[in-house]
Design goal:
It is built from 23 helices and 13 strands. It has 543 residues and is an alpha/beta fold. Bound molecules: 6-O-phosphono-beta-D-fructofuranose.
Length: 543
């Protein structure tokens, strides 16, 4: 640990203590010695059970990890976030996604002396009114036809959340309507989408916090051209385009009536913006009452996070275990394995949430971190992953902590298929934790020369998250759980989790490269590799 200040050394000494306890016993031994382990190493909150007993921790390790959180001033940092302090210091902004789902009708949350809650409620009411009208066929297209297709145009936080949640809540979505999500500046994404929809029946939601993002603005302009040419009148835009943004002037400049704009605020980070107006496509899909339940789920987890003691606090516990593996054991990646096809995009959503938040290498004081910060997040739904990459998790040389996520009830009961799905989930955590020893292999009659290959070391850590059913409420709570986990890790790692300067350089350079791809004569101002690639491209497209 290259973190030299005395306070930091004291704080990180807790990780050393946690490691000393953690490395002294295997998970198998921990279970042998404590029959009540599963019960004691479990917590429940907002409809979710977290069983973290299959981790390399005992009471001493957990105690030391909780101390690490305490000595990072976590309690005070949580309060700063919830109460609107400008904790996004490099952008001088508050971080208040929790205000978006604060369901207490009397709640007040202040930023710069102004209560933000009336604004939050008023946008929600406007979204509710609009989505009711679309769903009931009262909001019609330019030619008077009902809206059948909704196309959300956005990228990053203005896309991944809506995509993930719309898929997750498919069983609650309005029949007869179809939802599409266009993000990539690759024209194929829009072109293929437009083949599936009809101009007279399509509503475009242009979702962009800044309303300047290259991909989104290019797609929105192309969609607008397609609509105008399909309906033969520029006035049609007013009935087929709405905007979700913080930037009213840019929305107006694009040609969308700001009366059809759903606002949010600079204190909502893009990757935390799903419960803001960015969730409009979801609200149209599932209706305002399900959307309210979705927000309530977030809120339940928010309250748990703000009030529960750290040793019973689900996001805090998950964050601490993550830090034990990344900074204690040197695990570089973290795997999310939802055993629910409706959560297929959840790992991709987590990637932005975690990696854009904690993928930093500079501490809050401006000095190099010198230790591992946010992990590489990845994952796929089970059971599919079992037939591709689980081999490496079971027997490879990398330590990969995994979260298994499952729901006890399925929305689609077919024979015993859901039992099979869940059996696989539980069995995988068992296999990872306990493995199979050489003796067990021999006892099964495995030939001696194959024993090394058929042995499973085990001691692979997993969390299991279980809910009764995937509902709007449990989905909201699950998202909030991970948001707060990432927040806690940012606090302990002493980094700023709510900016994303690392995405800027590529964006700026792409502008220069674009002009060299299209100009009459390229500048030749790049390195020799980039200059050559530009020349090759220009030659191929005949420039
Ligand atoms: O490039 C990264 C990013 O700024 C994300 O943080 C954000 O979610 C995404 O781009 C989209 O930004 P916007 O909503 O402003 O179009």
């Amino acid at each position: 640990m290259k973190d030299e200040s005395a306070t930091a050394r004291g704080k990180w000494a807790n990780l050393d203590a946690a490691m000393a306890a953690s490395t002294s016993k295997t998970i198998r031994r921990l279970f042998d010695e404590d029959p009540s382990r599963a019960e004691r190493f479990s917590v429940e909150a907002a409809g979710w059970l977290l069983d973290y007993s299959k981790n390399r921790v005992d009471d001493a390790a957990m105690k030391a990890l909780v101390k690490l959180a305490e000595q990072s001033d976590l309690k005070a940092e949580i309060e700063k976030m919830f109460t609107g302090e400008k904790i996004n210091r490099t952008e001088n902004r508050a971080v208040l996604h929790t205000a978006l789902r604060n369901c207490d009708p009397a709640a007040k949350v202040f930023v710069d002396g102004e209560d933000v809650m009336p604004g939050v409620r008023s946008v929600l009411a406007k979204m509710g009114d609009f989505s009711d009208r679309v769903r009931k066929g009262l909001w019609r297209g330019f030619t008077g036809r009902r809206i059948k297709y909704v196309v959300n145009i956005g990228i990053g936080g203005s896309d991944l959340g809506p995509v993930m949640a719309n898929l997750a809540l498919t069983p609650y979505a309005k029949r007869g309507m179809k939802f599409f999500f266009v993000s990539n500046v690759d024209p194929t994404h829009l072109a293929e989408t437009l083949k599936a929809v009809k101009p007279a029946e399509t509503l475009f939601i242009v979702a962009s916090k800044t309303f300047t993002t290259q991909e989104t603005m290019s797609n929105a302009a192309a969609a607008r051209d397609w609509l105008v040419s399909g309906l033969g009148d520029r006035a049609a835009v007013a009935k087929h385009f709405v905007a979700v943004s913080t930037a009213a002037a840019e929305v107006a400049a694009f040609g969308i009536d700001t009366g059809n704009m759903f606002g949010f605020w600079d204190w909502v980070g893009g990757r935390y913006s799903l419960p803001s107006a960015i969730g409009l496509s979801l609200m149209i899909a599932v209706g305002r009452s399900n959307y309210a339940k979705f927000l309530k789920g977030y809120w339940k987890m928010d309250r748990h996070f703000r009030t529960a003691k750290f040793d019973r606090n689900m996001p805090v516990l998950m964050a601490l275990l993550g830090i034990l593996y990344s900074n204690g054991y040197g695990a570089e990646t973290y795997c999310c394995l939802p055993y629910d096809q409706y959560l297929a995009r959840f790992p991709a959503y987590l990637q932005q949430m975690d990696m854009e938040s904690n993928g930093k290498s500079v501490r809050r004081g401006g000095t190099p971190a010198g230790y591992a910060t946010g992990p590489i997040e990845w994952g796929e739904p089970g059971t599919n992953g079992q037939h591709s990459f689980y081999q490496l998790i079971h027997q490879g040389t990398h330590l990969i902590p995994c979260d298994f996520i499952g729901c006890c009830k399925t929305h689609n009961p077919v024979g015993d298929m859901h039992d099979k799905l869940m059996a696989n989930l539980f069995a995988q955590t068992e296999a990872l934790a306990f493995g199979k020893s050489a003796e067990e292999c021999r006892a099964e009659g495995v030939p001696e020369e194959l024993v090394p290959f058929r042995t499973f070391e085990g001691n692979r850590p997993t969390n299991t998250l279980l809910c009764r059913e995937l509902t709007p409420g449990t989905l909201g709570a699950l998202i909030a759980l991970y948001e707060h986990k990432v927040f806690v890790q940012g606090v302990i790692l002493d980094i700023y989790s709510f900016d994303q300067w690392g995405v800027q350089l590529g964006k700026v350079l792409a502008k220069g490269v674009l002009s060299d791809l299209t100009a009459e004569k390229p500048s030749g101002a790049h390195d020799s590799s980039t200059n050559r690639l530009i020349a090759r491209y220009r030659a191929a497209v005949g420039r």
